[in-house]
Amino acid sequence: MALFFSRISKLSVRRYNSRFFSSLPQSPCLVLGTKKLRESPEEGMIMHQKLFDPATEKTVYSKEKKYPKELVGKTPLGASQGWGISWEGLTLHLTDLYKPCVLSSKVISLPPLRLEYKPTTHATKLSLSSSDPVQDDFFVAAKFNEYHVSVYRPRWESEWTHIGTAYSLLPASKLMFSKRDQAFHFTSFKGLYMGSLYLNNYKEIKHKEIRLRNMPKIPQAGWEMLDNCSITNHLVESPSGELFFIKWYTQCIHQEDEDGDLEFVHSSTKRFMVFRQDGMSKDFCYTEDIGDLCIFLSNSEPFCLSASLYPGLKPNSIYYIGPRHGCYDLASGTNRPFPFDQFGKPSRVSAPYWIFSTSSLSSN
């Protein structure tokens, strides 16, 4: 037991006082930007965040909070379980800074990586096994390069474990944690295989073929259009433990000015396909009805919520961030961009990922 507590003490956690507003449950939100309010030697830098609330589709502002000095100049990488991930050099930092309302902002510094596993903003994918890494015994799983999945268990280990994987089975998708399976799941580059790291044996990757059934009936011209799209594959688990496999189709669009010069290049979401895993065969069957659920996709770990618990959210929908930002209705196949998304004018989003936590927002 003494050894256990000695390992806990190695976890670097710093808290920063912040001023607390009223507390109400809120839907996931998007951080549009950060504004410095004031700075002094006594307080440090005090800031608040400009946020987008998809339930009301309005801009809201977080409460005032002190910006942790450990994060100054750090590059944000993504989010998992409501925690943001930033990095500098070879060190990663977990923080709840992006949660709109917390009693105090926390920073958890993870052990440094070797040079060959240096994170990159476009490739790093990371997932946590707990929404409360300060209190819980938790795991961190990450993909830093094309050939390894990396795992770290803070309270029991002092360094990362890197597990090699075959190139054809590399974890190109976002990592996601399954509470049902107690495992980190991901898909291979083309979505042909699912890889899994189970917590009870997290030094071995297990792979299984992804079998898709009941494909949608789409005219030949529609399939030809999708063939010209880029595809990203995602896995997400519902609150009740259902597993979904999602194909996200995006198309690159360019526009020229009057002289024929390239004016801008933009990607547009054309379609989503959702497949629900069958409990018996473990195959994934196409569906356009996920009921009361809504799925959130961005540059971080996907997650799924019951829309009825968050008034204003649209059931049977996918809320997505990048390329472009909007809400996709699965039943009708209609795609509605958010108010701040203007085609041809890339939105300035400081942290392009959904942050989900019970929080308090002040409307403005």
Automatic annotation (TrEMBL):
This is F-box protein At4g17565. The gene is LOC109127572. It comes from Camelina sativa. Pfam families: Beta-prop_KIB1-4 (PF03478). Residues 59-321 form the KIB1-4 beta-propeller domain. InterPro entries: F-box_BR-signaling, KIB1-4_b-propeller.
